[in-house]
Write a structure and sequence with these properties.
alpha+beta; four-stranded mixed beta sheet; three-stranded antiparallel beta sheet
Length: 502
């Protein structure tokens, strides 16, 4: 009898589960919304994190849904996710109706994983308050203050490259660029010399790589925790690896204690956050920002580190990859850098770097072709009706903005596979839809560190191109293949290029 009850219970559970999944997968069909057909249990995520990068899934989904309506549908596991495919509607999501879309729906677990509670992930009023505190630390004036720190590391970077260029060696450039940006961020965020250019196995470099190296299971766990946050918090799931969390927390605690005890002040991000932690204000400014806790400071500094080193190094990697295949454009970039340097007596001043307009165009075109964050997620904070449609979506519904799909749309960017920095002249930008380029997002929740990222990337490219030429080798990944296990868009197997003195 007991055995019969168990069997019946199992059958009931399977049948109910099957019917629930079937209903979930009819979500868009019942609303009359075009969608990409899913398969249980991963929905449309088959192969993501294992054989393909999530960006490739997003790009392919955009191609399938574009032109059918202003939105389409995909499935993350059994969760229906709305994909906007119309640029005018994107304006509603990112700006006009921002009060419905201000949350990213990224998993946060302050109790078990305090580093997860950073600006990128937190939501609601917590996000608003923290954004207001951090925005003054990323003004152009504060960027100018940190510029000299970046230049000091850039000189070491240029010197390091020279040893390889003298021998016209083939080098794995992505790792070297990652070490350069690790040293920059380590200095600007923590006030510490990471020395990863000299020693590629420093703890800062190793911990930074660990953050972004996600095997298939880890990527699915990250998605699961975002799709089902209450279950994940109940299971006390963490998304920050324990050794990474311990390392960064200890480094910050020791650094802050030393600075406060010895009254040490530096022109870096950490110094600004310490001021906010202790007084709620920045020195020389009257605005009361409100104080932050050590845990909040740690989470924001951790975000500055992980967002700053990997995104900029990957952007430079892709830029140099494209320039290696286009020597004419590379020469044009080098000519601009050297002409401006001559004007400023060979010094990479803040003003000199800001004048490098063509370098800026190269960065923007690189981010069009290879957006480091290929997909922006938003989570509805209230029930929402699509403008001029009868479709209503409930609070908690995810919206997936297909940045990489938009950036590679031939109707927006003719011949999108061609690397052409002139797409980003002032005139050409004005002639395009304002939401056709979204590597940093847009609207109130755009990337707060965009200025720093662009400045760091501009300096890195300028210091390399001024003295060295980059060319492809037999190991250069042509055509490009993205690493499935990377949390951001990155080349698979590194980036092998030849470097030589000009």
């Amino acid at each position: 009898m007991d055995c019969t009850l168990v069997i019946l219970s199992l059958i009931t559970f399977v049948v109910v589960g099957y019917l629930w999944v079937k209903k979930q997968y009819r979500f868009f069909e019942e609303k009359g919304i075009p969608f990409v057909k899913p398969r249980f249990p991963f929905g449309n995520l088959w192969g993501v994190g294992k054989t393909i990068h999530s960006g490739e899934f997003v790009r392919d989904s955009y191609v399938k849904l574009k032109g059918k309506d202003v939105i389409g549908g995909v499935f993350f596991f059994t969760n229906p996710v709305v994909m906007p495919v119309d640029l005018d509607f994107l304006k509603h999501v990112l700006v006009k109706d921002f009060n419905y879309f201000h949350d990213r729906g990224v998993y946060v677990n302050e109790r078990d994983d305090p580093l997860s509670a950073h600006l990128f992930a937190i939501s609601g009023q917590k996000w608003r308050h923290m954004r207001n505190k951090l925005s003054p630390t990323f003004t152009s004036g504060k960027m100018k203050m940190m510029h000299s720190t970046i230049i000091a590391v850039a000189h070491e970077f240029q010197e390091y490259l020279g040893k390889h260029a003298e021998k016209s060696e083939e080098i794995e450039l992505r790792d070297i660029l990652g070490r350069f940006t690790t040293d920059v961020i380590g200095s600007c965020a923590f006030g510490l010399e990471c020395n990863s250019l000299k020693d590629p196995n420093t703890q800062f470099r190793e911990m930074g790589k660990k953050v972004f190296d996600m095997k298939g299971f880890e990527f699915l766990r990250l998605l699961f925790s975002s799709m089902f946050p209450n279950i994940a918090r109940g299971l006390r799931m963490k998304i920050t690896k324990p050794d990474v969390s311990e390392f960064f927390t200890n480094v910050l605690r020791d650094t802050i204690e030393y600075r406060e005890k010895n009254n040490v002040k530096r022109n870096d991000f950490l110094s600004l956050l310490i001021q906010i932690k202790n007084t709620g204000k920045l020195e020389g400014e009257d605005v009361d920002l409100g104080m932050i806790t050590f845990e909040e400071l740690t989470a924001q500094t951790f975000l500055f580190f992980i967002a700053g080193f990997e995104t900029s190094s990957s952007t430079m990697t892709f830029a140099l990859y494209e320039l290696s295949k286009d020597q004419k454009t590379q020469d044009r970039a080098r000519d601009e850098v050297n002409r401006i340097l001559e004007k400023y007596n060979g010094e990479y001043t803040y003003e000199a770097c800001m004048e490098m307009k063509f370098i800026d165009q190269i960065i923007k075109e690189t981010l069009r072709m290879h957006p480091i964050v290929p997909n922006l997620i938003r989570n509805l904070t209230m029930d929402y009706q699509i403008p001029d449609r009868d479709w209503v979506f409930k609070k908690g519904t995810f919206f997936s903005i297909p940045v990489i799909g938009i950036h590679n749309d031939p109707d927006i960017y003719p011949n999108p596979a061609k690397f052409d920095p002139d797409r980003f002249t002032d005139e050409n930008i004005k002639n395009r839809h304002p939401f056709a380029w979204l590597p940093f997002g847009d609207g109130p929740r755009n990337c707060v560190g965009m200025r720093f990222g662009m400045m760091q990337t501009r300096v890195g490219l300028a210091t390399l191109l001024s003295k060295y030429r980059i060319t492809p080798t037999s190991r250069t990944p042509i055509p490009m293949k993205y690493s499935p296990s990377s949390a951001v868009l990155a080349p698979s197997g590194g980036m092998w290029l030849k470097i030589e003195k000009v």
